[in-house]
Every structure is written in C-alpha cells, then in structure tokens.
Amino acid sequence: MRFLRRLLVRLSNSATRRRHDQRLQEEIEEHLALQTADNLRAGLSPVEARRQAMLKFGAMEAIKEDYRAERRLLFIDTFAQDIRFALRMLRKSPSFTAVAVLTLALGIGANTAIFSMVDWLTLRLPPIAKAERVTTLASQEISGGYSNAFSYPEFADIRNQSSALFSQVAGSTDFHMDGLSADGKSESMWASYVTGNFFETIGLKPALGSLIELRPGSSIDYEPVLVLSYSFWEAHFGRDARVIGKSVLVNGHPVTIIGVAPKDFHGIISLLDTQGYLPLGMAPVTADASKDFLTNRKSTGLTIIARLKPGVTLGSAQPALNVIAHRLCADYPSTDKWRSLVAYALGPMSPVSDPDNPNILRLVSALFLILAGLVLILACLNVANLLLARASGRLREMAVRAAVGAGRSRLIRQLLTESLLLALIGCAAGIGLGLMSSHWLGSINLKTAIPFVLDFHFDWRVFAYAFSLALLTAVFVGITPALRATRVNSTDLLHESGRTAAAGRQRTRGILVVAQVGGSLMLLIVAGLFVRSLQNVQHSDLGFDPSHLLNFTIDAHGAGDNEVQARGLLKNVLPRVRALPGVETASLATTVPMGYTNLGMELKIEGYQPPPGQSASWAGYNAVSPEYFETLRIPILRGRAILESDGQTSPHIAVINEAMAQKYWHGENPVGRAFANVDADTEKSIEVVGVVKNSRTGDDFSSPIEPYMYVPLAQHYDYQMPVTLQIRTSLPLATMNREVLGVAHGLAPTMPVFDVQTMTEALDTLNGLMLFQVGAGLAAALGLLGLALAIVGVYGVVSYGASQRTHEIGIRMALGAQRVQVLKMILGQGLFIVSGGIVLGVFAAAGTARLVGRFLVGLSPLDAITYFGAVFILAAVALVACYIPARRAMRLDPVVALRQE
Amino acid sequence: MKQKPDVRQGTLALMVLKTLDVLGPLRGYRIARRIEQISGDVLAVNQGTLYPVLLRLEQESAIASDWGASKNNRMARFYRLKRYGRKQLQTETRDWEQSAAIIGRFFAPKVEDLS
Question: How far is the C-alpha of A804 from the C-alpha of A69, rounded, in Å?
Fold first, then answer.
C-alpha cells in the first residue's frame, strides 16, 4: 500500500521535474541561511559561518541525487539521461560513430540474412491452423527404410483404425504436373489431388471462393473442380476475382475453378509451391491414374496428413500406430511390409521420407549460422577495440565524474548505454542490409520450371533474432571498455597525463585483435575449402559432355494428348528436329542428368543373389530414344546402343553402365544376359545389349557411381511424364529455341515447352551445382567480410600503439636509434599479433573440420593448399596493415615527436 | 577523523515523526537542529540527508508541508504531522520499544531472567 502510493506519486512527479528541483533548491538556501545565521551568532566570521554551514549540510550533489531518486522512478530518469548523453557523445565524433555503426550493421546484417534463410528452411511452419497438431505419417518398412507413399486402401484402413488418435485423416498425391488451358493458352501447373477433407484437416480458409469439401455420404470427391494457389492465380489470372466459376481445361478435361488458397499457403510439400488442388477422385480422369487406384494396394503415392485429437501427443499416439501397422501387416503381408507407422510433426522440411536421417539442411543451417556468428564476433571485436581506444581518451572524463560522486555502477551503466545505442543503430541498419541481401538471395533464378518457393520474408523470428543479437552485441562490445574505463583511481589520474594508465589497455586490445585475426583466418579457410570444392565439382568428370548441348522439355500430355497421340507426336518430333540446320544429333530422354527426377527399379537378376542384410538389387534408369549416347557423348564400351528397331513390341532390352556390369555380373561380359523388373505387372525379361561408360546421373558429385541403365523410350514410355529433347549443336540457344518451338507447336499448338536451357545451365540447378555455388558464394562473402574486419582491427591497434609511443620513439631516435630499428619495433608488435592469430585460426578451422567435411567434394577438410593459401593471404594483407603505421613511425621527426604532449 | 554511527534511514524517519509530534509544525532546518540536539554530536548526520527523508514521508502521506510565513516574516516550508503519520509513529514506537527491550535484556541480563 505504502509502496503503491509512493509509486503513483513518483510517476506523476516524473512529469513535473523542474518545480520540485526548485523546491529543494529553496529549502537548501533556507537551511543554509538559518545555519549561517546561527553560526554568526556563535561568533564566526561571515565567510567561515557560510563554509561551516555548507560542510554540515553535506555533499550537495549526492543529496540532490537522493532527493530526485526519492521523488521519481530513478531508472527511467537516469536511462533517459544516459541516452541523451550517449546521443550527444555519438554526435560529437561522427566518424567513430559511422565506422562503429557500419561495422555492426555488416555483422548483424549478414546474420539476419542467413537467419532468414535458416528460418525458412528449418523453423517456419506452414501457415495453417495449429500447425503443430498436424502430423504426417510414414511407414517403417521391415527392410528398414521409411516410406511416406501409401496406397488408397492403406490410407482408408489407417483412417478407419485411428479414429481414437486423429480427428481428421486426409490424403493427397502431390506434385503432379498437369497442363492447364484457359483463354487459349496452356501453362504447366503442379497440382495435388486431395481427399475431400484435406482442407478441413489442415484448417485452411480460402482467400477467394471455396475450397474442396467432403460431400456428405462419400469419402472421395469426383467433382470436376479446381482450387488455385494464390501465386498461380496472381501469375496467370492477374488476381482476377472473376476466375471463380470459370471453366478451364486440365490436361484437356473441363473443370471449374471454385476457389483460391490463402496467400502464404504453398501446399504441404516444403520448398515447393503447389499451384492447384483437385479432388482425389478426379485423378483417374484428368491425371489418368489407373482406374483401380482406389482398390489396388500396390498403387502407392498418397501422402497422409492427420490432425491429432485434443490430448493426444505424438508420443502417446505411437503404441496405437504400432498396433495398426502390425494388424495391416498381418492382413496384407505381400504389400504392407511394415514394422511400424510413425507420425511426425509437419515441419518446414516435411514430408521427409526418413525421420531418422539427419537433415542435411539443418547441418548447412548450423554451419552458416556459425560462420555468420563469427563475422559478427569479428565486427564486435572491432567495435570493442574502437571503444577501448576511446575509453583511454575518456579516462579524465571518467575520473571527473567519479570525483563529483558518480558510483562505478552508474558509470558502467552510462558507457553500456552508449554501446547499446550503437548496437541498436547498427541493428536497424543491419536489418536494412539483411533485407536487401535476402531479397537478392530470394531472386536467385533456380533455372527450372518447377515452382520452388524462395520465401525469405522477415517474420517476427528474424526480427527477434536481430534484436537479441544487438543486445548481446551491446554487452559484448561495451562491457570490457566500460569495466576498464571505470577501474582507474580517479585521484591518481587527475594528476597524471594518463599515458601509463593506457598501457594496460593496449594489451587487452592486442589480445582482442589476436582473436580477431584467428576468427578471420578460420572464416577464410572455410571459404577457401568451399570454393575449392566448387572448383572440384565444376571440373569433375561427369562422364558426358555438357557443352554445346541444349535441353527442351516438352509435355505432350499437358496438351491434352492421350497415349497414342503422345507417342505419335514424339515419333514425329525427332526427324523434324534433326532436319533443322545446325543440329548435329538429337534425342529424347525422360530425365536429365542432375535433374529433379530420378527413376529406379528393383531387379530380379538370374544368377545374382544380394548379400544377406543388403537391400534388393536395384538400378536407376533413364528411358531414352536412339542417338542418345551420341548426343550426350557417352562412349559405348561393349555391344550396341539403343536403335530404332527397339520398338514397343520388340523384345525388351537395356544398355547398362560399367558399375552395373561390375556389381551384378562381376566383370563378366553381361551382353546377352537378362534380368526382370520386379515392380512391373508382367515380369518380362529384359536383355542386356550393351555396356556404356559410367556417367553422373544423380545429384551427388563425389560418391562412387551407382548401377544405372538406359532403356528404350518406346518400351518404357510413361506418357504422363514430360520428356526432354536434347540437341547437340554449335548454334546458340536463342536461335535454336525459335526453331524448336516452331517444330513443337507445328505438331501440337498448345504443347507446353519449358526448362529451355543449355546443359551447362541445367547443371546449375538446385540438384546440381547450385548449392555448391550458393554455398561457396556465401562462404566467400563472409570470409572477405571477416578479412576486412580483421585488417581494420590490426591496423587500428598497430597505428594506435605507434601513436601512443610517439614520445618514446622521439626519445629513442634522439638517443641514436636507427629508423630501421623503429620500423622493426612497431612491425614486431604487429607480427606478434598476426602470428598469434594465425595459430589460433588454424586450430579453430581444424576444429570445424568434421562439420565442414560433410559438404566438401574431392578434398579433405584439412586441405593443406587451402590452409597455406588462406594463411598467406591473411599474413600478406595484415603485414601491409602493420607496415603503414610502422613506416609512419619511422619517418617521425624526433624533434616534433618530443615536443608532442 | 572520528567515525560517526551510521543512522539508518528508517531511524531518521522515526526521529522526524517524533520531533513533529512533540514540537508541532517546523521548518526543515529546525527539525535537523532538534535531532542534532537530542542525539548529541553522536548523530550529527549530514544535515542535507534529512530532505530526501522528509520528501519520502510526505509521499507516504505521513506528513504534509505548507508554504507559510515564519516569525521573521520570511516565506518558508513548514512540515506537520498527519493522522497517518501519527498512527505510524505509534506503531513504530511500540515496535521500537519492544525490540529495544529485548536487545536491552540480552545485553544486561537480570538475575531473574537467567533462572
């Protein structure tokens, strides 16, 4: 009660400061006058009477301070005072402020930009209601792996048996490429086919119109309706609200657009933007899914999304899921070979197919956060150094403040307020820089028609991160200078010049710079490793020749063609393209090396038994047309290539790579041997007719090449998948593009043609070189930033040290020291710092070897060349930074130097 | 220099209340003199420290201050005890006497207390 009353009075007093100061002043005057009068009466002289009265009254300023403290909320008051003072101090030395703010802005900006990527990659949940309650399911196979692709009957069984766990269970087949024709134009659209309760399960509200809903009494929806994603609606319909009710063609079949999904919802597949949603029942109509997919347990491809019932957690759901898995496994032993079912939270990176596998993106995130953090530390060290240097200049100021009664904690608070202000201004500028760079990162051209979402917008998490960095920075940067500056004995200092007191400070600064050089060397080494790794990848032998090779992906199915029409179209494309001027060779293929699609099949091979404990025989494959090996320049080692005569009805054949020959036929001649595709409906025998040299096909540049084979496109044609036309020509892409589009649209006017690029460009995609390039680019940027900061630090300390020793140098030279000796003396100090930093940096870099090594191709994380190179660069630049102030010291005129002070 | 006992703020406040209770409305200077006289040189605190205490008591509504004319017709601030202050003085006096008695008994035990 008493406390509360005081608080209220004080709050109101905070507003009316002046009046109260005046009151105290009056009372003091009154008090002193009365005391003086009493003293006079006691017989003292007027001057002495006044003096005694003052002495008796006590420390005037401290009492005033107490009085104010009593009256108001002191901390608000002093804080406002500190801020005002700090602002004045910063304004007084604009160049110091600019350098410090810029340094911190670079550090905080780099961190903010990196964190916005990490946020997007690993932290941000899809914008759906109570996203943490939504889970996705995976089956753990008896063979050990995880799969998140279920068949419809499996989905239905799981849904029916899990009603105690989940309030809703929905399914979707994701990322099916459809052609959407509206207003006479055809676009490719990546669509999901979803069960009727899909949107209800994730709790989504439409931005426009309505979403797909479950009809009463049916479990699956056959309505010919379409829901567009916001971005697709924006890009292709210009956000026209009249699209609702519009009739469009999906793969040639009429459907009605009924709604638009909300803006930030990109579907449940992370990183990818699902552009349209159709009812699952429409899959057999528009997407030509097999008619029996509702009943066939083998026809997998459904992702299961489930919302936990209130009170159920992932952990408490697990035993019941195990029971369901065992029951289904017992009922359907041939298809549901499950050990268990696993539910895991819908994260930013889900659905992932293997919950046990450490997420590589998390590792990348961790690595780059560490590197960016290091840059910030370097920036902080620089600013701390600047503040230390300033602190030496302000020793007198501190001493005077202490003498008039400021406590040490009050002084420290004042200095920390200054660094806090610096950090906050730096933080604001850093957020600006971060926004700019993440905007730039977000606009990276991924060189693919696949709609990736690069959404590095700054949400509250990014701002919170930047702000907490700023607070940390303020303390980190300010605490040492503040402690140092206030530790001095004021009386000593006021009598001295302050030079001796500054000596100890110089040592602290030296240690800070050693740490800085070390950190910067570590950054340089890591950046060097990444750059060399990129070089290795770029110059690695791919096994085919990517130069003068152009890719055009065409989608006959997207134009509305059925299988017969699509086959006819492909038959006609090649002869016409080959007849174009400048075309050396041309071929068709289902997948492109380092592309986003990889095909594979499980094999049954005569005379080959997989070793116990290993998974079944398996090979990746590509369905290609004749002339493929000539076009890609993959040499044939044995047997023959794929020919025109290998048609749809002729015996099935395959051309295999060396790795496959080695693994399954142990180096014997495989030509003439046969195997079968386990997954095919008819286990038709496939004969090996040739062996080609190994070449890279998947997204891995470093591991040994896996078994791979090429089969005739005619025999393995999935007409729903687009095919890529590859042309070897010395003509530029632009010229060729016109010609190819002419041919394609001459055959089918609405056929989508996309991913038009040279093979070299195609290698730069996310699955190919892009991650290496982005990684190396980011690491190099951080490395250079770190180097610049370290050099500023070295230069600052050495030149400051030299200027502090001007007097000493003058004496030495007056006593006969040679100029070279002075040079050596100053350089020596710099060398000591730099060599200390190099030792530290090498050890620090070696400490990160395990983490960094995971991302390197073709070189060890302790690569000697990189280490020596980085040390050399750093040492060279640092020496220049030391030499400049050393030379300045050497040229000092002793007479001038001695007169200084 | 002789070390003087440190006067706890609470004690000083109690002295102020008692002074006003006994002598009626007073100026700050007179309160300081009174405390000095009663306690002797032992409690000759820095007189200025009295003013923050006066302010605190005023903010607690234990005392009030008025701007009025003094005997020699100079305007000055007079402090007077309020009802809440008187009540506070009573409780604190009682508390003080109790603890003083206890401490006193500890330092000068009588025979009957020990038996």
Answer: 41
Q: Report CA-CA distances (Å) from A617 to A19, A548, A607.
A: 91, 36, 12
- Give the residue from B64, B110, B56, B55 showing the smallest Cα distance to B86: B64
Would the pLDDT of A605 be above 70?
A: yes
Residue A628 in contact with residue A551, Cβ under 8 Å?
A: no
Element (H, E) at A70: helix A60-71
A711-741 pLDDT, tens digit per residue, is 999 888 887 778 899 999 988 888 888 888 8
CA distance A8 to chain B (A): 9
Which of A787, A788, A857, A773 lies closest to A522 in space, CA to CA? A787
pLDDT digit string (tens) for A102-137?
A: 888 988 888 888 888 888 777 777 777 788 888 888
Whether the Cβ atoms of residue A531 and residue A776 lie closer than 8 Å to each other? yes
Instruction: Quickly list DSSP for A699-760.
Output: S-SSSPPPPEEEEETTTS--TTS-EEEEEEESS-HHHHHHHHHHHHHHH-TT--EEEEEEHH
Q: Are B80 and B63 in contact (CB under 8 A)?
A: yes
Query: Which structure tokens are listed for A466?
Result: 């930047």
Residues 6+ apart with CB under 8 A from A411: A398, A401, A402, A482, A485, A486
**CB contact set of A594 (below 8 Å; sequence gap of 6+):** A696, A697, A698, A699, A762, A763, A765, A767, A768, A769
The per-residue b/e assignment along A878-899, b for 16 or more CB within 10 angstroms, e otherwise, is bbebbbebbeebbebebeebbe
Q: What token pair was written down for A174?
A: 């994701």
What pTM does this model have? 0.68
- Which residues of A fall within a CB distance of 8 Å from B46? 56-59, 63
Three-class SS state of A257: strand
Interface test with A, best of B9, B29, B92 (most A CBs within 10 A): B29
Q: Give pLDDT, residue A656.
A: 93
How high is the pLDDT of residue A614?
Answer: 63
Q: Do B60 and A10 touch (CB under 8 A)?
A: no
Tokens 């990322």: give the residue: A175
A360-380: b (≥16 Cβ within 10 Å) or e: ebeebbebbbbbbbbbbbbbb
Q: What's the rounded Cα separation, in Å, for the pair A844 and A518? A: 8
The H-assigned helical ranges of A240-338 are 283-286, 314-331
DSSP code at position A396? H
What's the alpha-carbon Rg for chain A, to the nearest Å?
37
Is residue A277 within 8 Å of residue A261, measured between CB atoms? yes
DSSP conformation class of A563: H
Give, in order, the Cα–Cα distances in Å from A114 to each of A427, A443, A504, A773, A778: 15, 15, 38, 16, 9
Give the B-side interface with A, CB within 8 Å: 27-29, 32-33, 44-49, 51-52, 55-56, 59-61, 74, 76-77
Residue among A210, A241, A206, A242 nearest A223 (CA): A210
Residue A277, strand partner residues? A192, A227
How far apart are the C-alpha atoms of A817 and B9, rounded to whole Å?
A: 65
3-state secondary structure at position B78 = strand
**Which among B72, B59, B92, B61 has a CA at the least distance from the CA of B29?**
B72
Find the DSSP H helices in A353-449: 360-393, 395-403, 408-442
Q: How many CB atoms lie within 10 A of CB B82?
A: 17
Say yes or no for a CB contact (<8 Å) between B51 and A67.
Answer: yes
Question: Could you tell me if residue A190 is left (phi over 0), alpha (psi between -120 and 50 degrees) or otherwise beta?
Answer: beta
Q: What is the pLDDT of residues B19-77, one digit of tens each?
A: 888 888 888 888 888 888 887 665 555 777 888 888 888 888 888 888 777 666 777 78
Give one DSSP letter per residue of A75-139, joined into a string: HHHHHHHHHHHHHHHHHHSHHHHHHHHHHHHHHHHHHHHHHHHHIIIIIPPPSSTTGGGEEEEEE
